[in-house]
Amino acid sequence: MGIKENCRNELRAAVRQLNDRCLYFASKWAAEQLVGIEQDPTKYTPSHTRFQRGSSSIRRRFRTATEPATSFTSTPVAGTSYVSTPSVALEDDGSDTAIDSDFYLLAKSYFDCREYRRATHVLRDQTSKKAIFLRCYALYLAGEKRKEEEIIELEGPLGKSDVVNKELVSLERELSALRKNGTIDSFCLYLYGLVLKQKGSDNLARSVLVESVNSYPWNWSAWSELQSLCTTIETLKSLNLDNHWMKDFFLASAYQELRLHNESLAKYEHLQGTFSFSNYVQAQIAKAQYSLREFEQVEVIFEELLRNDPYRIEDMDMYSNVLYAKECCSALSYLAHRVFLTDKYRPESCCIVGNYYSLKGQHEKSVMYFRRALKLNKNYLSAWTLMGHEYVEMKNTPAAVDAYRRAVDINPCDYRAWYGLGQAYEMMGMPYYALNYFKKSVFLQPNDSRLWIAMAQCYETEQLHMLEEAIKCYRRAANCNDREAIALHQLAKLHAELDRSDEAAFYYKKDLERMEAEEREGPNMVEALMFLARYYKTQKRFEEAEVYCTRLLDYSGPEKETAKSLLRGIRYEMDVEHFPP
């Protein structure tokens, strides 16, 4: 039996089991991967709208011969054997009697109606592993529900609060006892890991979650919680995980969170070998390429995703960010209208509409939609960061700082929020604070030229005036594919200011070559031509100086008269040189 058939059989069983245990997010994820496996063409012909393997629209245009991900790869590639599937994991706990099963069905019905305490009560005397898990899980969610209610009652939907889930202590006690006596199953291990994580016992939570995914690898919720506890590559490498194809999904996602975007992309492209029609895999490839600022490829993938799954809202907020960055107002308007009709009370929908109003310059209305997104999910990171950007546009720096701080509280690795804090403090005339936040942002995202440019401009401020440091930052920006073409021009200007004519000429020439290649005109080109004309004149390289002066004659401003004066001087010096008195 091939790898695809193995994966298909395992996922079918996993969908039923996860659904039976009310782990609906994990069940949905497994079902999406199940239909993402390429079908046997003799039995099934995919629609022409589906992704095709090898299609240029979903593959990276350029791949290097050696992938950086290879040093991290420990899972066999698709098509080879992997660790044998735990046979007990695919079978249900068979200890249920008919009466037990009836109680379980009643409890599951209560659970599906969000009556968690009733579900817990019904299962109070049931001893099967399945019943114990559902009872504990229902109790955990009852505590979470009450916690949310108390947050709203005490602080309001967007306020900070120290409210905790009051059921964690009793759950930890019970699940710990089950683990110690060896009667805990993989699902209760997942729940135990979740409880430990909320209580701040990260090391033990990691160990417990590793046990859970090793004994039952198909629970994506357990993998997701484990990933959130892997904040460094060292922690990730220290995990003792069995080799199973689910590990590849986990590593790809973990690399993405650790900002190892090329490694993540390599993993997802490898997974396409089996899950070639998976919308999830395509969306993750788009995320990785978004982080690498390959916006053209990202746009193509999201357009294909929407054709394939027209009512999809997941990840569409990222698509809206791409359209916003490209200033595609009509496409963003269409996307906002589409998701609003599908489900206007999803945080992603509110964020997309907020992006649309921001692009239109209606910042107050944009903030209203970001706040609505946060009422629906107060931990929705993008909404906090984007709302901070809007407050910056509105010159409301205290509100911007508060929004950015909430974002870094949720995820200290969000470079955009640190960058936003730097901008806000720079606006308030506090460059030392701003510099501190810019340094944090470039540490998290060292390949983003915009962050290096922001830090360089901070060094250039009157209070700091650290031009050598600014030059170092602009050099880093120039080496990080500076799309805005700011770094080369600023490097030339700073070297000129420091009377380093040779270095200034070098950067002005590079900047000029780039502007010519991109067919850009403007004051920067005039400045470069003027400097190079004067520089070569002083170097007595008259022919080159004459070329730059002649180009300046095409302009109609004062630079034309300056160029004429320079040409007269050049010709006089050339005459003196050739015909000395």
Describe the structure.
This protein has 581 residues and is mainly alpha-helical. Among the domains are: 1-37 and 98-153 and 165-229, Tetratricopeptide repeat domain (Serine Threonine Protein Phosphatase 5, Tetratricopeptide repeat); 412-484, Alpha Horseshoe (Serine Threonine Protein Phosphatase 5, Tetratricopeptide repeat); 497-580, Serine Threonine Protein Phosphatase 5, Tetratricopeptide repeat (Alpha Horseshoe). 67% of the residues lie in helices and 0% in strands. The chain is built from 29 helices and no strands. It is elongated, with a radius of gyration of 30 Å.
Topology, pairings included?
Blueprint: H1 3-20, H2 24-35, H3 98-112, H4 116-122, H5 129-155, H6 168-180, H7 186-198, H8 202-215, H9 220-228, H10 233-238, H11 245-257, H12 261-271, H13 279-291, H14 295-308, H15 316-325, H16 329-343, H17 347-359, H18 363-376, H19 381-393, H20 397-410, H21 415-427, H22 431-444, H23 449-460, H24 467-478, H25 487-497, H26 501-517, H27 523-538, H28 542-552, H29 558-578
Helix pairs in contact: 1-2, 3-4, 3-5, 4-5, 5-7, 6-7, 7-8, 7-9, 8-9, 9-11, 11-12, 12-13, 13-14, 14-15, 15-16, 15-17, 16-17, 17-18, 17-19, 18-19, 19-20, 19-21, 20-21, 21-22, 22-23, 23-24, 24-25, 25-26, 26-27, 27-28, 27-29, 28-29
Organism: Nicotiana sylvestris
InterPro entries: APC8, TPR-like_helical_dom_sf, TPR_rpt
Protein name: Anaphase-promoting complex subunit 8
